[in-house]
Design a protein that fits this description.
5-stranded antiparallel β-sheet; 38 strands
Length: about 600
């Protein structure tokens, strides 16, 4: 009789207890790691003006900003978008699907909800889908202000209509296949009297990025202000609503003013972006609203801007390929890096302690979760942008995800191999059964792939957003990836450590050689990092979209990784949860 495994998520709450177990000890890092790259872009009145500014600054944009309205939006798809990409940049567009006219019933959120603009939205987003590359769309930007026809309080719009209208547009776009749109929820810097951000939030699943627009006027419109004073409260406000969504500044500008130095302001602004977690900034390089925002308003200003823009982590098309920029903006490599329990886009040096059954995560209170014999299985099972504490119970093949529920997917002897197999940006429960070499995926078909003695190494090896069935054969050092040619990469004794080491959105075949501490990543030169007795824990510790070569030293509970080490975090006997459970079990006899 054909066997099967039930993989059904149950709505059963998991009861846990909080416990503070032991202090963690952190030692000083020898040097600060590089910040994640911040992609710089320009928005200008014409492409010619933008190119002239880029030449003056000796910095090509990684993002090009512009404005699409009902009357001009047809020009953007086809030649313009492709020319921007040919220059090495990603298009960013403001978009209002209505007519964008004040006191016009056809330019309201109600008209969107009534379906009046559906045909246009479908046609426009189909054209975006045909373009086929990532595009950042600022749908109804600065909606919390009082100057746009779609703003609540104007034109008969209400705050309650905004999230409904947003979801309506996004749903139509996705139905037309425009999954290459990166939806940017983009309020203006909150001010006294602006609409509450929480009332305008459409929900995490309808937003890819959040953005803040802010301007330093230094005239009758507003005072000349310190960037950090402006940015701090604004970031706190948007984080209170949007949580850990990646943050950008889609529009920013500083006017030339006798009240302060524009050159100094720009220098401070660009150098302060990492402090606020900003991942991209697009400068508003226009003359508009009675102010000159351009970066070339004076020799002093342009000299300061040029110097600041050539200081890491600010990058543009001169520094990264367009494929890499698209990968970072689309967060292709990992929507949620392995073991990211804070939602900041970086892997945490988290451990699970079998002796006390506690999860130990930097900056968080230790939590008791699990039973003796359980296996920690890191992953973002809800798609919320943070990893959940989760364990697999080999005794009965059940999965326990803290705060979510339990799932039965497996049986005694199976090896847990969680990954995003269906491309919904959620970790799926899955096991590989050594006795019959079959994969059992939650909600998917049973598939045979592998042989006795293999180690399951699922990953997105072709960059299509879906994890592929993969096994590593230790006896021959060969990789067998479904849909990919069999590849010899490794020798007996090597440890498979697949990850995206190049930031191209694809898992790379890679091994770590315990005898020499050398990492062998296919397509890259070998690198020595670690020694015999260490445990390799490759992951994105800096949040730049690239997997870092990193090791955990069990003898001293020390992590050696960019941005976090050497750091002592844990105790003897702890299990680093960033390493896939199949590799931990096969090579290090860890749960």
């Amino acid at each position: 009789m054909r066997s099967f495994v039930r993989c059904i998520l149950l709505d059963v709450p998991v009861l846990v207890a909080l416990a503070v177990i032991g202090a963690q000890v952190t030692v000083a890092m020898p040097a600060k790691a590089a910040d994640a790259p911040i992609i710089f872009g320009l928005g200008d009145a014409t492409d010619a003006q933008r190119l002239a500014t880029e030449a003056a600054l000796d910095k090509r944009s990684g993002i090009v900003g512009s404005f699409a309205t009902r009357t001009n939006s047809a020009i953007y798809w086809g030649a313009w978008a492709r020319s921007v990409r040919a220059e090495g940049a990603v298009p960013q567009l403001f978009w209002d699907p209505t007519y964008n006219r004040p006191d016009d019933p056809h330019s309201t959120l109600r008209s969107i909800l009534a379906g009046e603009h559906d045909a246009y939205i479908r046609k426009w987003t189909r054209e975006v889908a045909e373009y086929g590359h990532p595009v950042m769309i600022r749908l109804w930007a600065e909606m919390n202000g009082n100057w746009q026809p779609y703003s609540p309080g104007l034109n008969g719009n209400t705050a309650s209509e905004f999230p409904l209208a947003w979801r309506h547009v996004v749903t139509l776009a996705r139905s037309e296949g425009a999954t290459n749109i990166l939806w940017v929820w983009n309020p203006d810097k909150p001010y006294r009297g602006s609409t509450s951000l929480s009332s305008l939030w459409p929900g995490s699943s309808y937003v890819d990025w959040v953005g803040l627009d802010l301007y330093n006027w230094g005239n009758s419109h507003g005072p000349f202000e310190d960037f950090r004073t402006m940015m701090g409260p604004a970031v706190a406000a948007i984080r209170a609503v949007a949580g850990s969504k990646p943050l950008m500044i889609p529009e920013i500008g500083c006017n030339e003013s006798p009240e302060g130095s524009k050159a100094d302001w720009l220098t401070t602004m660009l150098s302060s972006l990492p402090t606020f977690g900003v991942r991209a900034v697009v400068y508003f390089n226009h003359v508009m609203g009675g102010a000159n925002w351009r970066l070339t308003t004076s020799t002093t200003t342009s000299t300061a801007a040029r110097a600041a823009l050539h200081t890491l982590p600010i990058v543009g098309a001169d520094d990264l390929s367009v494929d890499k920029i698209e990968s970072l903006l689309a967060r292709r490599s990992n929507l949620t890096p392995a073991a990211d329990y804070s939602g900041d886009g970086k892997t945490d040096t988290a451990t699970w302690r079998p002796s006390t059954l506690t999860w130990n995560i930097p900056g968080q209170t230790p939590v008791s979760y699990g039973l003796p014999g359980d296996i920690p299985v890191a992953g973002d099972y809800t798609g919320g942008g943070e990893s959940e504490m989760a364990i697999y119970r080999p005794a009965n093949g059940t999965w326990w995800v803290r705060g979510v529920g339990t799932a039965t997917c497996g049986r005694a002897g199976d090896i847990p191999a969680p990954a995003d197999f269906n491309g919904d940006k959620k970790t799926d429960t899955a096991v590989w059964r050594p006795s019959n070499s079959r994969w059992y995926l939650r909600g998917g078909p049973i598939q045979r792939w592998g042989a006795p003695g293999d180690v399951p190494v699922p990953g997105d090896f072709n960059g299509d957003g879906h994890a592929d069935l993969g096994i590593y054969r230790p006896s021959t050092g060969t990789w067998w990836i479904r849909g990919v040619a069999t590849t010899a990469w490794g020798v007996p004794g090597d440890v498979p450590v697949p990850a995206d080491y190049t930031g191209d959105g694809k898992a790379d075949m890679a091994v770590w050689r315990p005898s020499t501490g050398v990492w062998w990543v296919r397509g890259l030169p070998p690198t020595r990092w670690g020694k015999l007795g260490d445990v390799p824990v490759p992951a994105d510790y800096t949040g730049d979209g690239w997997a870092d070569r990193a090791i955990y030293r069990p003898s001293s509970a020390t992590w050696w990784a960019p941005g976090v080490g050497p750091t002592r975090w844990g105790r003897l006997g702890d299990v680093p949860v960033a390493l896939p459970p199949s590799v931990r079990r096969a090579y290090f006899r860890m749960p």
